[in-house]
UniProtKB/TrEMBL annotation, chains A, B:
Pfam family, one: ADH_zinc_N
Residue ranges, annotated region (Disordered): 1-24
Listed name of the protein: NADP-dependent oxidoreductase
Species this protein is from: Melittangium boletus DSM 14713
Listed SMART domains: PKS_ER
Residue ranges with Basic and acidic residues bias: 1-12
Entry superkingdom: Bacteria
UniProt-listed SUPFAM superfamilies: GroES-like, NAD(P)-binding Rossmann-fold domains
Amino acid sequence: MAEGRKGREIHLKSRPQGEPTQSNFELVEVTIPEPAEGQVLVRNHFMSVDPYMRGRMNDTKSYVPPFQLGQALDGGAVGQVVRSRSPALKEGDFVVGSGGWRDYSVGNAKGYSKVDPKLAPLQAYLGVLGMPGQTAYVGLLDIGKPVAGETVFVSGAAGAVGGLVGQIAKLKGCRTVGSAGSAQKVAHLREKLGFDAAFNYKDGPAAQALDTLCPEGIDVYFDNVGGEQLEAAIGKMKNHGRIALCGAISQYNATSPTPGPRNLILAVGKRLTLRGFIVSDHQDRYADFLRDMSGWLREGKVTLEETVVDGLERAPEAFIGLLRGDNTGKMVVRIAADSAGS
Amino acid sequence: MAEGRKGREIHLKSRPQGEPTQSNFELVEVTIPEPAEGQVLVRNHFMSVDPYMRGRMNDTKSYVPPFQLGQALDGGAVGQVVRSRSPALKEGDFVVGSGGWRDYSVGNAKGYSKVDPKLAPLQAYLGVLGMPGQTAYVGLLDIGKPVAGETVFVSGAAGAVGGLVGQIAKLKGCRTVGSAGSAQKVAHLREKLGFDAAFNYKDGPAAQALDTLCPEGIDVYFDNVGGEQLEAAIGKMKNHGRIALCGAISQYNATSPTPGPRNLILAVGKRLTLRGFIVSDHQDRYADFLRDMSGWLREGKVTLEETVVDGLERAPEAFIGLLRGDNTGKMVVRIAADSAGS
């Protein structure tokens, strides 16, 4: 490899107050270090933007440490090994890791997992076969525990996780109801993803939509958004219903505490379980997930939806758009112009 | 038995708006019907007042039907069979049933359970050996699932349920923290019930008290009150903490929806489980409960606390006081003046 290889990376320039803006980010040219013993150098093809990254832009303690000002962001990325100093990976291998928001990443080989580009397009390892896919899988099956014949409601259903939750629930014999933020997305849910019913949460009160679409109530609610839809779902839950708390995108840009569900008291009489989870606790289910999800993909039982934004320099724009709901399906940024993807 | 036996019962005269008042209740003299085939006539000695009854005074659907206007209230009561037309019970038997708020109850023998007045004072079957005791037992052990060495916080800790939660948690090797509404109750928690720490929630923000008393966080929160203390507890929960949602007495008299916990989103990153429960779902644990609790009582490991109000006519006053927190331990009304109780 050439000495003094140059690459670009996106730094966090300032912490967003409310909705992030371009000025919170900075594209910086850097010299890529040589990999040390045990490390690999990976050229990124695609990187992921995910809602959870918004939390890491605040300076608050959580299950993942906050991003540091003046340093590169990180997150899921898939690429190809161009230099290896580890027996675990060889040059030419395709890998997924957490070195996103940059052209090249350098890191310990143990931090990367080999992926098979013949099984699915490379960027699928950031979506349906990656963290969002596994989030949908364990969140629905292990936290929500749906039973055939039950009604499953998922918010943010046009997103990377929500769309898979609906499709898996359908495969498990459930009635599926989804919400999204535009008429086009709602049509997509019904026509492409096989939802039994869907509504645009911007059209009116969620409680009213759920009254109409879930007349007999909800057994499992997969919550990606929090706020008004969580309250509405609690109101429509059946006895012994389960709520998988996955995220609360409606609140991520909030600058002051947002009201909690005023009807949480109903959880007593209805014997509801609300359970928060994060996917990294469920690595024991990774093999099951990969087997099931790749099988469903192969058999055409799961539809792969994505929104691709071209160019590392547009990653901030992609992320800002994600929080606004600009995407349908998994949103990724194509970093390597020569990577055709799917 | 005499023909045309007279008795008194308390009717719901009007539905309370906010805090109940005496004018919502009416003491009515009635003629007690003869028990039919399969029924018994029971003379009540003690009746229970419980927070859940407030919900039944509203005209809303819940897990127990609402009380009807112009009819007798009902609820837990313990008494003696004075006339039996069932082989299941004989005259002189002591029984617990749900025919409270009256001098005499008549009902199917199957609706009553025999109790042993030698094992514990009669009114204990309305408290430590009755519904509140079983609520504490299953809510703490089966919903909260504490492990020795963990920190258990219980609100409403001077109440019938909360006081037992703290004592059971202590028996299981946990560190126990309780909240109550007066300095006297706080002293009671520490000195009589063996709580490791306690605070008066009226003294200042609950979040501040929990910061001081649970510096390492909370593993299990047993919620009797909802509102501010629930939010404060969510803020102090450790990762993988469990919240048993038992009741929300701070909200029972509310006339408009009360704010939910603004920090519920923390349940995701902390992987919290919030689970509502009602004791009647857990009858499969009744034998375990009775064996354990009566054993602890016999061995002096559980302290029996109660507040006794004398006279059926004072039952509304007792109930109103219960919602205000006038009681320490189980609040009961002595109906039969000749019943010495404990």
